[in-house]
Amino acid sequence: MAETAKLERVFFKSGKDMLDYLCSGIDLYSPTEQIYVFNYNEDGNICAYKNIDLDKAVELETKASKDEEYWGAYLGWQGSHIYDNSSYENYDDGRASNIEWCNEMYGSFWLKTTDVLAYADFVNTEPIKLENPAACASAHFSSSI
Hints:
The protein is an alpha+beta fold.
């Protein structure tokens, strides 16, 4: 039997935990929300891209791991959403802040972007087509945070 790569689903206790994790430099992907998010700058601003399906995530991770790059390097600005730290000098009160976004999203299914290829392999090798692969797969992952 082939050895299965160890995958790590990332759990957060709060939006602040998620924001701290992102600010540590680890990028995240949610296959259920189809969102990629990363720390945008040293001020704690974060950037999120929506509508990144699993096929696109696999394409991005394949390129990024080969080039030692982050996914955002291939995505450009179109489709990105910046969520500023509310203490950032250019913060716009009319937009959601980084912590507001994380408070809304921390309970979703999250993976480190570096685990996307192993996750896709897992999902694609299941003998039965699953209606919600992320829910089934979560039972097979270890967790952190």
